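Issue 218. Parser rejects a valid record. Input:
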Amino acid sequence: MPLIYLDNNATTQPAPQVVAAMREMLETQWANPSSIHRLGQAARQRVELAREAAARLVGVHHREILFTSGGTEADNLALRGILDAPMREEGKRVLVTTKIEHSAVREPAQRMGGRGIDVVYLPLAEGGLVEPGALEAALDERAADAMLTLVSIIWVNNETGAIQPLEELGEVIERARSRAAGKLYFHVDATQAAGKMPVDFAALPIDLATFAAHKFHGPKGVGALYV
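Output the parser choked on:
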């Protein structure tokens, strides 16, 4: 009986050309890409070509792509890189998110809430969508006097498939920036969007986004954070 695989939201089978490219790298381009000798620089060139390809996939400049070990590390880096960053002036820090995030965001949010960061969970409308009005109210109420605020919302839900209205939410955040006392950033978990639907991060009102290769027939252990 042929295998019927129905779990592509969890992971996809690596494409044959991906397997071939990885085999080539393991056999011929295995040097440290940080080394200055010829073999190291050849490996570095392949890394940068991969970075350019990842950037083209999501419509951004290659210098805006940071490689990680997967979507989980990319999400963790986005949250901690913003909310744990040292600042000249100490003050309230706020994370605005939802309870339907992937655990890569949900669990760090819980830990941050236990150590002084104000974590706000947005209510959801029918279909599991975030209403722009709810986001605006949360930003006006809790983030107006914050020194640092991060909004983190999953674009396409990995369980339900709900697609959040990023453009409308981004417009809310843009308006809130003019009233904010401190810095305000918008992070999107795009792990279930990139490689599955048209994606152009540069055209979206976002500051950070995460995605992972194994969701669209790439290798496991390769993620990226757009900054």
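Fixed in the parser; the record now loads. The two ends are 46 Å apart (CA to CA).
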